[in-house]
Amino acid sequence: MTDALQYRMGTTITEHLLQCEGECPAATGQFTQLLSELTTGAKLISREINKAGLLAYILGLTGDTNVQGEQVKKLDDFADQVFIWRMQRSGLLCALSSEENEGVIQVPDNLPRGNYVIVFDPLDGSSNIDANVSIGTIFSIYRRLETEVCGTLDNFLRYGSEQVAAGYFLYGSSTMLVYTVGNGVHGFTLDPSVGEFLLSHPYIKIPERGGIYSVNEANSMYWDEPTNATIEYFKSGRTHLGKPYTSRYIGSMVADFHRNMMYGGIYMYPADRKDPAKANGKLRLLCEAAPMAFIAEQAGGAATDGKGRILDIKAKALHERTPLFIGSRKDVEDATSIMQGHEPE
Ligand code: P6P
After folding, report:
1. Does the beta carbon of 222 sit less than 6 angstroms from any atom of ligand 1?
2. Largest CA distance in the chain
3. How is residue 12 annotated by DSSP?
4. Structural domain ending residue among the three candidates 166, 201, 236
5. Protein residue with its CA nearest to atom 10 in ligand 1
6. Ligand 1, closest atom to CA 255?
7. Residue 282, in any domain of the structure
8. 240 contacts: CB under 8 Å, gap ≥ 6
9. Same domain, yes or no, for 184 and 219?
10. Are 288 and 310 in contact (CB under 8 A)?
11. What is the pLDDT of residues 99-121, one digit of tens each?
12. Which residue among 67, 223, 231, 252 has the greatest number of ligand 1 atoms within 8 angstroms of its CB, and so is best to mutate?
């Protein structure tokens, strides 16, 4: 088959997972079905986001506040309900956890259960919705603990290294899925004309070093000395470029992370003293940092909390937060060295 024909035919997610089945244990038929349900949810959300500007009812706030203390956007709530509905009916999960919901979400007794648990952030970066800025969905999948009955909290209090799959949907100029099942990172782009996600970025590799740093510098007066020294490093001539990195900060981690995956660079959300809730960082370990860390490492990058590897952290609570330094491996190593009081190598 010619490349042109191959391109026109496209490689679907199911086809890609079937190709992977021999290479990695997680790419079972069950997982293929689960990913298919996730992509259906993403298509529904993409449809709503792409016409949100035309349909005032889907923009704005619900008036509710979520477990994070954040104002809930109508699209947040819609995305949360879409994924809960689809995941509960996948027949493959024994419990769910959403960034928008305080406790473990059970699979109702009248629905079939399976051997996986999923953690997801239904719409990360949603404060940007009304400004038409790219936002995303993040998901993380574990095999359930055989020692646990379905739906217990302990199924979720896991090391990030126990994940069998992780991914994100990016609702941007195009809608993309980027995922890993432990054999590299692969990107698919939604072709709205056929309603299919088609392989567009096989085996994504994040450059070993970048030239972009992403951090909210308005928090600098609340950072400790090592954190300020780390950000100042990327703004100095001491970088490997011999000049400062470029600053890019979208305020939507999925979008900032994806850009750094493509071009190289580092995204940082350090702990800060501004808000007691952020004394250990703003980002959630289970539904943001751990899945993105799995993806980063599978793409040749790295992710730490400023001390150690994110994937070596065992969650102690569903909505536990962590500082996050993630992206190009050598950039993350430099940041972590400075955070620990050493000079980068
Ligand atoms: P700040 C979105 O709420 C999020 O979790 C990330 O997607 C984003 O990078 C960060 O918070 C933005 O937070 O404090 O800079 O507005």
Report:
1. no
2. 62
3. B
4. 201
5. 251
6. 7
7. yes
8. 209, 330
9. no
10. no
11. 989 999 999 999 999 999 999 99
12. 252
Helix ranges restricted to H, the chain? 3-9, 13-20, 29-50, 74-88, 225-234, 253-263, 290-298, 329-339
Same-domain check for residues 183 and 225: no
From 129, 256, 269, 275, give the residue whose CB has the most ligand 1 atoms within 8 Å, as the site to mutate. 269
Three-state secondary-structure class, residue 298: helix
- Does residue 252 have its Cβ closer than 6 Å to ligand 1? yes
CATH of the domain at 114: 3.30.540.10
Residue 136 CA to ligand 1 centre (angstroms): 12
Q: Which atom of ligand 1 is nearest to the CA of 288?
A: 5
- Establish whether residue 251 lines the binding site of ligand 1, counting it when its CB lies within 6 angstroms of any ligand atom: yes
196-214 pLDDT tens trace: 999 999 999 999 999 999 9
Q: Is residue 207 part of a domain?
A: no
pLDDT digits (tens, 9 = 90+) for 308-330: 999 999 999 999 999 999 999 99
For ligand 1, say whether the CB of 172 is within 6 Å of any of its atoms: no
Q: How many domains does the chain divide into?
A: 2
Ligand 1 centroid to residue 216 C-alpha, Å: 8
Across 14-18, 49-53, 185-189, which has the greatest mean pLDDT? Answer: 185-189
Q: Evaluate: CB of 270 within 6 angstroms of ligand 1.
A: no
Strand segments, DSSP code E, in the chain are 61-65, 71-73, 93-98, 105-106, 116-124, 135-143, 165-171, 175-180, 185-191, 196-201, 212-214, 246-247, 266-269, 302-304, 324-327
Please tell me if the CB atom of residue 244 comes closer than 6 angstroms to any atom of ligand 1. no
Which of 173, 201, 229 is a domain's end point? 201
Stronger pLDDT, 189 or 75, i.e. the higher one: 189
Looking at the structure, tell me whether residues 325 and 242 fall in a common domain.
Answer: yes
What pLDDT is stored for residue 6 in this prediction? 59
pTM beyond 0.90: the answer is yes
Which residues form the domain of 313? Answer: 212-339
* Percent with pLDDT over 90 in the chain: 68
Quick one: 113 and 193 in the same domain? yes
Question: Is 124 close to ligand 1, i.e. is its CB under 6 Å away?
Answer: yes
